[in-house]
Amino acid sequence: MLVLREVTVRFGALAAVDRVSLSVEEGERRALIGPNGAGKSTVFAAVAGALRPVSGRIEFAGRDVTKLSEPRRARLGIGRTFQHSSLFTGLTCLENVALAVRARRGLGLRAWLPRGRRAEIEREAAGHLAATDVSPDGPAGALSHGQGRRLELAMALAARPRLLLLDEPAAGMSAAESAELASMLRALPPELTVMIVEHDLDLVFAVASRVTALAAGQVIADGTPAQVRASPEVQKAYLGT
Ligand code: ADP
Ligand code: MG
Q: What are the record's GO terms for cellular component (predicted)?
């Protein structure tokens, strides 16, 4: 589904991502772990097309996407969670997700639609909300932090991605919210490929089938959760021992 070949992304003199190669199968749940500044978010930005590598190649679903823009990659099926700022706090959760469904279908946000069409869009939106366990009614602005993050996930799912990039989805969540998120992520459609950057290693090991560890822009370990956890390089990067 996704192949990175020797991808390097620079910020001036800094190689934030340094010759990273990795390969993710369709339906995989891949975690990207590593200390702060390791280059995890930069890898996601390069995959989504928000940052352009100075060298290397990115293939998605068998196609070279290295030079494609972010919107074109989104249309091919590379999705990311929206930021909080993209929630319309005065609209209901259902209305927020319905807007994301409209956007995917290339419909104007305010374009008039016949009632049957609107009902169909709302049914789809309600399905995404059910998958992320968010109540459709009530303003998005009134949600708890954990519910807000799940609403963002519902909006990302409304884009019907084939590859979903989740950058620290549990950030700021309580332990209970994080556990709920883990079971929700496990319930996502099996054909959806998910990459997750997360500091909460309990969540990582509950969700990921395979883990790639980065440090200082480079891959230091790649394998099953147990293999990566046991890697001396990973223990050194995390514990400084
Ligand atoms: P992570 O997500 O693993 O914490 P990042 O990918 O955000 O790490 O950052 C990798 C490195 O690149 C860090 O040293 C960070 O300071 C640097 N960096 C990230 N974004 C920028 C930017 N826009 N401009 C300059 N340096 C950046
Ligand atoms: Mg980051």
A: plasma membrane
Closest residue by CA, ligand 1 atom 17: 16
Treating both helix axes as pointing N-terminal to C-terminal, what angle do 145-157 and 93-104 enclose, rounded to 10 degrees? Answer: 20
In terms of Cβ atoms closer than 10 Å to its own Cβ (0-12, 13-18, 19+), residue 189 is exposed
**Predicted confidence band at 111 (pLDDT cuts at 50, 70, 90)?**
confident
Q: Which residue lies with its CA nearest to atom 21 of ligand 1? A: 11
**What's the pLDDT tens digit per position in 177-215?**
899 899 889 989 999 999 999 988 888 888 999 999 999
State whether the beta carbon of 15 lies less than 6 angstroms from ligand 1: no
Q: What are phi and psi of 74, to 5 degrees?
A: -60, -40
Binding site membership of 39 for ligand 1 (Cβ less than 6 Å): yes
pTM of the full structure: 0.92
